[in-house]
Amino acid sequence: MVYTLENENLKIEVNSYGAELSSVTGKKNGLSYMWDAGDAWKRHSPVLFPIVGGLNNKSYRCNGKEYHMNQHGFARDMEFSLCESTESSLSFVLEETSETLAAYPYKFLLKITYTLSDSTITVAWEVVNTNDGSMYFSIGGHPAFTCPLKDAKQTDCYLHFDENGTIDYNLLNENGLCLPEIHKLKTENGYVKITESFFDKDALVMYNNRTRSVSLAGSDKKDYLIVTFDAPVYGIWSAKGKHAPFVCIEPWFGRCDAHDFTGSLEEREFGNTLEKGERFKAQYTVEVIQ
Q1: 53 CB-side CA count, 13 A
Q2: Are residues 63 and 37 in contact, defined by beta-carbon separation less than 8 angstroms?
């Protein structure tokens, strides 16, 4: 089911299937800021849980047993329940099932809340460990934003990082696993122009230990959308080789396996641990500039 929030600035839609933000429309200009889940990629903004990215050989070990799971986990393909609704917020919840336990041997409560205030959407995650022992997980966002926004080419647009100079990043191999080589992305006053070949090698995986914002800007270098987050890893992605009119800015509390990783679930880089009854909370914001 699709639920709606709106104010004088924005109208947003959230689908209970995957608790996915599926539409963001400017009330003053009528522009759509979210990708329409077209042929190039059939999603809008999936929630990545209980893993982010891919597993080496699509499998992992936990408590001496091997499990199998597809890229980004199962939450994006499950029906959430609406648990709270106000004039400015929607909250959805997901708990374990017999199917999830077969792929991920932990009970959990996952709550996702969308709050609309002025021209800003806050996406908040809460994970609760309902097991008797420790629980290991990752969580992340994968929102796809319209780029270009108006009648232009994507190659007229810019990514705008909140720091100057050169930004280090990793690339993925053909199996979606992280390669060790460090690449350099040169910015000019924080701006990087999107080229025809920008996403030819899939996602750019970047690292962060402080609050960061990444914006999309038009040919005039004026930001029209800003994503702000405090996450240890983030990705920049669009559909490889398809030149589709969207760019994903993805805050991650987790990451795909390294190409040579052979450890267990609790040893995955950037993973999170909760003890019995503990809660994990994190959020990111999307600000639309009209």
Answers
A1: 35
A2: no
Find residue 95's DSSP bridge partners: 109
Task: Map tokens 């022992």 to a residue.
Answer: 133
Confidence of residue 68 (pLDDT cuts 50, 70, 90): very high
Distance set, CA 236 to CA 198, 206, 250, 252 (Å): 10, 8, 6, 11
**Consecutive H or E run containing 99:** helix 98-103
The residue extents of the domains of the chain are 2-288
- pLDDT tens digit sequence for 78-103: 999 999 999 999 999 999 999 999 99
**How far is it, in rounded angstroms, from Cα 95 to Cα 74?**
12
Locate 285 and state its tokens.
């914001």
DSSP state at residue 194: P
Is residue 45 within 8 Å of 22, Cβ to Cβ? yes
Cα–Cα distance between 22 and 143 in angstroms, integer?
A: 9
CATH no., domain 2-288: 2.70.98.10
Q: How far, in Å, CA of 204 to CA of 207, rounded?
A: 10
Report the C-alpha gap between 217 and 11 in whole angstroms.
21
